[in-house]
Specification:
By secondary structure, the protein is of the alpha+beta class. It has helices at about 15-20, 40-60, 85-90, 90-95, 110-115; strands spanning about 1-10, 30-35, 80, 100. The radius of gyration is 15 Å and the shape is globular.
Length: about 130
């Protein structure tokens, strides 16, 4: 088994709204190490993780419009295995990336909270 750094792009609900309003193409990205038997297997499992991550992001209080499409697959975001992670990221950054076995999910709620804070404290459209 090998350990692969899977990286995926996505839009947050606010980016999705603002991109549509202004013609922008802003995206965020997230990463997870996947222990798998092949690069292809890691990519396939990574896609499954990405779909769940984006679904959770839209469901956790960040949703700005309940009619927004949250289908990660149909939006053709960037996704790849980084073959040179030691050169592209610091040791500190790499240690912060969760590691899962093929078929396991990372703690997606923790990933979202670490990146965006507690959604209970953030309400879309608030003036604070």
């Amino acid at each position: 088994m090998n350990k692969y750094l899977y990286i995926f792009g996505y839009e947050t609900p606010l980016q999705k709204r603002d991109n549509a309003l202004h013609g922008w193409d802003d995206e965020d990205s997230a990463a997870v190490f996947i222990v798998a038997s092949s690069k292809q297997q890691a990519l396939e499992w990574g896609h499954t993780i990405a779909k769940r991550f984006v679904g959770a992001l839209f469901d956790r209080g960040f949703l700005t419009d309940p009619d927004q499409d949250t289908n990660w697959d149909e939006n053709a975001f960037a996704t790849w295995i980084d073959n040179d992670d030691a050169k592209n990221y610091s040791g500190e950054q790499l240690r912060a990336i969760p590691t899962v076995e093929y078929g396991e999910y990372p703690d997606i709620a923790a990933m979202i909270t670490s990146k965006y804070g507690n959604p209970a404290l953030t309400t879309a459209g608030s003036n604070s």
